[in-house]
């Protein structure tokens, strides 16, 4: 076995999610259970295993006070925790249908990663002052509409492929290209947004992003190798991507994201002195951005990442399926 680059999981040297997901080439054989135990459990999570952040990154007092900034983070982490819980449950089928030990071990570690993400997101809500004894119930109640209108259709699509059809490669495509490929840029934006306002939340997102790099890179290599060995599978894979793109066009994700971005907008204005000239991406101050601009930029990042990853998989024709020229133009204008 050739070990994966250690810096892919090192807290201080791992690349950002967007760069890492576009440039790192990782395989299931490299990112096996031993790698996860050595470089994730004993590396990425060192000093952060319980809360997802270091003790040196405390929760600022104002984040525990009622207001739009706190409400925006509660909604963001609450909804993300529900999504990660859904992902954890679905990944059990990936372990069950894994064609080999390398894939089995990798998806067992990804299952643990997603369960950990859900846990630290919930844990931070307790740090913000939400009652721990009713937290899970309260989150599910608050996220009920989001779950029904956004997550449930995605979950049904995923399970139809990997559970009902026992199509492991198709399931990898759904998770890697459709689900994580679309959600990852929003996670990158979360890390950048909260960096100055809630350093603990920023670190939690950073830890999740390091994991997502590995998930995206390994999933991509599994699909690349599967297509090389089974070129006849290409039409089936393209059909899955078409169905996935149609699904994402239909679910009202923007409705929920923009609602909490409006709250964030109001809250960051109240704490403008803490943000100052901080640039959320090169050349653009966070204070000068709008909810719509941040959303459009995350969409642009999604398209950029998809173009690179699909080309690396040997699927250049899929770029047109997943691409949205109008969305790309809007994203470019948001820079």
Strand content: under 5%
SSE pattern, N- to C-terminal: HHHHHHHHHHHEEHHH
Question: Rounded to an integer, what's the Rg over CA atoms?
Answer: 19 Å
Top-tier CATH class: Mainly Alpha
In total, the number of strands is 2
List keywords for this structure.
single chain, 335 residues, mainly alpha, Ribonucleotide Reductase, subunit A, two-stranded antiparallel sheet, 14 helices, 71% helix, globular, disordered C terminus
Report on this model:
- The protein is an all-alpha fold and 335 residues long.
- The protein has a single domain, classed as Ribonucleotide Reductase, subunit A (Orthogonal Bundle), CATH 1.10.620.
- Helix content is 71%, strand content 1%.
- It contains 14 helices and 2 strands, in the order H-H-H-H-H-H-H-H-H-H-H-E-E-H-H-H.
- The chain has helices at residues 17-23, 33-44, 68-97, 101-127, 135-142, 144-164, 168-194, 199-229, 234-250, 253-270, 272-275, 291-313, 318-322, 325-333, and strands at residues 279-281, 284-285.
- A two-stranded antiparallel sheet has the order 1-2.
- Strand 1 and strand 2 (284-285) form a beta hairpin.
- Helix 4 packs antiparallel against helix 8 (199-229), helix 7 (168-194) packs antiparallel against helix 12 (291-313) and helix 12 (291-313) crosses helix 14.
- The longest helix has 31 residues, at 199-229.
- It starts with 16 loop residues before the first helix and ends with a helix.
